[in-house]
Amino acid sequence: MMPNRSWLSLVLATANFIEVSGFHRFPTSFVSHPSTFAILDASNRRRLSAFIENGNEMNDSSTSTRGNAAGMSSLKDAEAYNDVVSAAVDFTSIYLRNGIVTATRSARDIDSNSRRLFLYNIPLQSSHRYPMYPPIELPTKIKARIPSPSGYKIAVLAEEDVGPTSGGAAKSSDNNNKRHVFEIWTDGGHRLANRVVLPTDEHGSVCTDFAWFGGIGWTPDESALVYSAEVNKPKTKSFFASASSGNTDEILGGWQHVLGVGKGEDWGEKYATTSLLGLFCLNVESGRIGRVENVPGFTTDSREGGYVLGQPIFSPCGTSVVYTGWDAGAGGGMPRRLGAVYCFQRPCKIYSSPVSELLRRLANPIIDDDERIAPSSDAPFACITPIDRLARSPRFSKPVRGLSKLAYLCNTKGFDTHGGCMALHVTDWDMAKGYVIDESRDVLVDVVQMPGERGDEMEVSGIRFPGLFLHQLRDDCFSPDGKYIVTSTEWGPVNKIVSISLVDGAVVPINFDLTRSEGFSDGASQQFICFTDEGGAIVTQSEPNRPTILGQLLPTFLDDTSKYAPSRLIADLSAISSVSFSSFEPDVKDSIGFRYQLINTQPVHGDVKVPIGSILLLPEGAGEEKPPLIVVPHGGPHTCMSTSYVPSYSFLCKHGRYAILHVNFRGSTGFGQAALESLAGSAGTLDVLDVVAATNSVIDAGLIDSGRVGICGGSHGGFLAGHCIGQHPDLFKVAAMRNPCTNLASMVTSTDIPDWCYVESFGSGYYNFSDFRPPSKKEVCVMWDKSPIAHLEHVKAPTLIALGMKDRRVPPSQGIEYYHALRAKQVPTKLLVYDDCDHAIDLVMSEADHWINTKQWFDQYL
Ligand SMILES: *[C@@H]1O[C@H](CO)[C@@H](O)[C@H](O)[C@H]1NC(C)=O
Ligand SMILES: *[C@@H]1O[C@H](CO)[C@@H](O)[C@H](O)[C@H]1NC(C)=O
Q1: Which domain holds residue 356?
Q2: According to its UniProt record, which protein family does this protein belong to (predicted)?
Q3: Which of 184, 722, 723, 774 has its CA 20 to 30 A from that of 716?
Q4: What distance in angstroms lies between residue 835's CA and the mean position of ligand 2's atoms?
Q5: Which of 120, 99, 115, 209 is nearest to 157 (CA)?
Q6: Tens digit of pLDDT for each residue in 254-300?
């Protein structure tokens, strides 16, 4: 229920598809980023020198008195945490135009408790090992930079503060003093050619959630943009507002607190200000904006039902917009809105709306009389994927002789689990006709139940092809020769780049390693970004002990996939120090200090025998002594922990000297659909047995100290931590939980995803998406039985609980109840309360505080 999304949340112990984390040291002669030099103010210098002088005391903190040493070890922890976090980079966007790779990196800044954005321009032809130009910091008001297809123009979306507005009656509560502005830069981004302030009477906030709902697309002729933005609410006012304020015809007295009218119905966790999204076009020369009205669920003022319309792009002919529409509940087949974030399998379809007439009108700088009275003559919208229960991520190939192909991800079966295997469909798009509904649809890659069932021989980390597990295709996913689609997909615990033949659907993993020219590591996670003009590709690579690097596959990489693809490192980015008392020249790379290995364990229980794919991180230089182990089951449960760099586990392993075992128990994505679905209905049983089996396999291999095993997890991972310390109190000695589900019977009535409680307790098909009712007496009893709270009497493990008080996914009352129960039993426990955090606990300072506390909890008890 909570995978990790690059832009939204970064530290969940769940699927990690942060495309990122790079660092390197500039040669000493090279002037590093200014932030490195701005870091030591006077007071922090004192702290740092005190820290250095007291180094000897710190050395024996574990043996001497805890008092003074504890303070020093906290400083040491803070510094070490800062090192691993500074090394990480989240790329929020990467594109290639005119031979230059432009990457935006989001870096945590603990001092200011915020994330900062840095822009790197890296010439592809450069022979430097490091980027030639130092990064430029982007103001936080910049929300997106979208290059046109040729790279001649860049659309920059900014969110500007405009100070308090007057005329209170019609204000929207979430967006009072902000406005959105599109700036159009031409000449390759050198010239500011136009600035369009988006009028608030046209729409609300532009959706910049590009990982999911959002999208901004250019027409092929680069004259217009399409984007997704919040539809304006009807105007409301208080019963007691003065009669003179505003136009009384439009304003509804006393409706300002009514859900679905003055109060937008939101999409739960992380989407508190998203209610209904519509599509809008902007002509970048005239500056005129118009709403696309020929869309499903279009009404001018209703807040009931409708659709969220997102991921828009133009068709290759530029005459239609193609987009994904999600049923917004209260209409269609879904009476209750369910939380959207981390829930990738929600009902949605792909639609196409002709817009030639709209674009023609917007190109005219003046609204003429004809336009005022005549309705638009654009034809009605069409649903391109009528039989799919979910379909998303439409992508076009470049047109060849008037024909283009449309690829998209879909699933005809369903969405009971929040993550799952997707099929890839490709259909011809007739440029003349505008759209095509292909009745005989070509299923290029179907949903895979069991790994290898398609007969594909090749293995990745000991697992044959498990099907496609991805959220979206990249914009540029068709190879220039039109023969392949290239994408990254979860394949066991590895994020793997694969080529998919458009002729026969054959799926082949692309093997390479940016850190060496020959051979490859089975473990590295890699992401496909885009093709180069010559037919090569831009890619990223990351490993648990190596933050992300940026590289290039050479143009021959698709020719002979039986060999290693020739590759080249483009950039190995420096750490950007986050805290003022950190070491002046952090050198994380030389001291990564741990190795990792992939471990497949055969499950003993359950009908579906697919390996449990775990990742074991082992601290180096432990000598004769075997390290203690922290077992980390991910959240979800239908997500996957991949072999990418995650600062918090680097911190625990390298600095805390704990072995870390990430367990992709049954139910995880990347192991086929059958194994995934086999968990639904057996949560708290089969997933627990898998975690225990994986733990025992590491103990049996003699790799860790079997007397010192702890467990740590968030959300469903917290649910598993609770089960493990209750069902296996002699194996798991210490626990740390983050927003844990502890009692499904009480969670079901307060979470934004009640469907999850039913499906995980009773199995697929149990929740009726076209109906809603509260749980029955019998259901509440079953849910209680499947919860950690049912095993409370056996718990003896000291347990740390961390809560984000704004969590709407797993309400904090879950953790609070569990905390009080442990305290009453006199089990050592501690509650961390983060008032401003939600489910992810991802505000920079809170995240840091939480992980340092977690390490110290294990230091104290394990
Ligand atoms: C810490 O103690 C060890 C062993 O007593 C010693 O070799 C080492 O030099 C000490 N380190 C510091 C920084 O004092
Ligand atoms: C789901 O609910 C709808 C509306 O109440 C009902 O018509 C339908 O039969 C239900 N489906 C199942 C499988 O119970």
Answers
A1: 200-342+348-388
A2: Belongs to the peptidase S9A family.
A3: 774
A4: 40
A5: 209
A6: 888 888 788 888 899 999 888 889 999 999 999 999 999 999 888 65
